[in-house]
């Protein structure tokens, strides 16, 4: 069988600066892939870009489940640093709760320029057109970004309880990269929730593609080695806006694709994998690698598989179909919820 992508595709897996972003509408399983890379690549730090606590990343490692809205998903590597870039909105209550729950305060640096989500932002995000029409997560991110742009917002440097975590994140990030150490840049949401590239107004409050995520943490475009776009093996969406091929609730349940939102508890809408969206996400993010998660949900016989060769013929056909359509190698494949339920093919493409 022809090998796709063509042999000219090369990836870097060691000592790299990896940017990980979502390729559909969020909830692609970025948290699982980021936690895998943080452990496997022994990263110096995971730095969080993206919007803010509207994100919900789930990480399952050594029998423990982590639900993260503010902390980077790389936290399971206890030797790595955790950072939050200045582009990110911080809700101090949510962040402090996670810091205390997981005991990672000594490893955390929050940039003092992060904007603050206040109670009034949460209140206005939970009513009117944001709730009724857009169907936001109600976490205050849109109104807080709005205040930030109007130059009436608050910065985290003015929040007393945060003082011990503050540090110059762009400087620290660039020092790590310039020293040749591995770094993970963690995005949130998904390409088609981007304020610029999604179906406005059914979008989040800023761009969330790879270049924006780098900008959030103060990393210029020449310093990135790999851009990994994460797709789930099917598509889900919460809130308003179009979803091509949307299944009925019954069909979603019959296929075992029913999911409930980490942050909102809302039931997710579902549709089959969308090759057109995947191609466009690859273009918008200049993806050099693709990760496909939850392959075991679509192909149950693949649950827990760790080697590509051991996947079923149907599953391999699905993966190579994605490579043919996009021209980008599928290097990381999720076959279960646990961090190491992952097929890592990066060396094959080195
Ligand atoms: P906001 O980001 O809370 O303003 O919500 C805008 C749109 O993005 C709504 O459709 C939300 O459901 C969606 N959204 C925001 N964050 C996430 C996420 O982390 N996963 C999935 N959907 C999200
Ligand atoms: Mg999520």
Q: What are the main properties of this structure?
A:
binds inosinic acid; Adenylosuccinate Synthetase, Chain A, domain 1; 350 residues; binds magnesium ion; two-stranded antiparallel ribbon
Question: What are the distinct ligands in this entry?
Answer: inosinic acid, magnesium ion
Question: What's the rounded overall pLDDT mean?
Answer: 95
CATH class of the domain at 37-225: Alpha Beta
Order of helices and strands: EHEEEEEHEEHHHHEHEEHEHEHHEE
Structural class call reads alpha/beta
Order of strands in the sheet with most strands: 7-5-2-9-1-10-13-14-15
Described by the principal axes of the CA atoms, the overall outline is globular
Percent helix among the residues?
25-40%
Largest sheet: 9 strands, mixed
Uncertain segments are none
Polypeptide structure, described:
It is a single chain. Helices cover 28% and strands 18% of the residues. The protein is α/β, with parallel strands linked by helices. It has a domain at 37-225: 3-Layer(aba) Sandwich (Adenylosuccinate Synthetase, Chain A, domain 1), CATH 3.40.440. It is globular. The structure holds inosinic acid and magnesium ion (MG). Inosinic acid (IMP) is lined by residues 25-27, 51, 54-56, 134-137, 139, 141-142, 188-189, 193, 202, 204-205, 238-240.
Mind sketching the topology for me?
Elements: E1 17-22, H1 30-40, E2 45-48, E3 57-61, E4 64-68, E5 81-84, E6 89-90, H2 92-102, E7 108-110, E8 115-116, H3 119-125, H4 128-134, H5 141-149, H6 169-178, E9 183-186, H7 210-217, E10 226-232, E11 234-237, H8 249-254, E12 269-272, H9 275-285, E13 289-293, H10 295-298, H11 313-326, E14 330-334, E15 342-344
Parallel strand pairs: 1-9, 1-10, 2-5, 2-9, 5-7, 6-8, 10-13, 13-14
Antiparallel strand pairs: 3-4, 11-12, 14-15
Helix pairs in contact: 3-5
């Amino acid at each position: 069988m022809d090998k796709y992508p063509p042999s000219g595709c090369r990836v870097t897996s060691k000592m790299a600066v990896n940017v990980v972003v979502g390729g559909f509408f969020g909830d692609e399983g970025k948290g699982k892939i980021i936690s895998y890379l943080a452990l496997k690549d022994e990263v110096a730090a995971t730095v969080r870009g993206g919007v803010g606590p509207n994100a919900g990343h789930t990480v399952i490692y050594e029998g423990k489940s982590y639900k993260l809205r503010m902390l980077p998903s790389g936290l399971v590597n206890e030797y790595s640093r955790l950072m939050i870039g200045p582009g990110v909105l911080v809700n101090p209550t949510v962040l402090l709760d996670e810091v205390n729950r997981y005991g990672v305060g000594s490893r955390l640096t929050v940039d003092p320029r992060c904007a603050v989500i206040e109670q009034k932002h949460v209140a206005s995000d939970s009513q009117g057109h944001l709730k009724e029409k857009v169907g936001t997560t109600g976490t205050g991110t849109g109104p807080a970004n709005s205040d930030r742009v109007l130059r009436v917002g608050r910065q985290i440097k003015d929040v007393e309880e945060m003082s011990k975590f503050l540090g110059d994140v762009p400087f620290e990030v660039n020092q790590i990269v310039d020293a040749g150490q591995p770094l993970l840049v963690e995005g949130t949401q998904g390409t088609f929730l981007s304020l610029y590239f999604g179906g406005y107004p059914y979008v989040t409050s800023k761009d969330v593609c790879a270049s924006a995520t780098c900008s959030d943490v103060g990393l210029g475009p020449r310093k990135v080695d790999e851009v990994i776009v994460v797709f789930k093996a099917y598509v889900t969406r919460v809130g308003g806006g179009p979803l091509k091929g949307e299944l009925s609730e019954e069909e979603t349940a019959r296929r075992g694709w029913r999911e409930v939102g980490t942050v909102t508890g809302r039931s997710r809408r579902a549709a089959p994998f969308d090759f057109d969206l995947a191609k466009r996400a690859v273009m918008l993010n200049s993806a050099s690698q693709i990760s496909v998660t939850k392959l075991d949900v679509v192909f149950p016989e693949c649950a827990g598989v760790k080697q590509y060769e051991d996947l079923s013929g149907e599953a391999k056909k699905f993966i190579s179909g994605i490579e043919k359509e996009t021209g980008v190698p599928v290097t990381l494949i999720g076959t279960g919820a646990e961090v190491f339920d992952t097929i890592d093919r990066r060396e094959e493409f080195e």
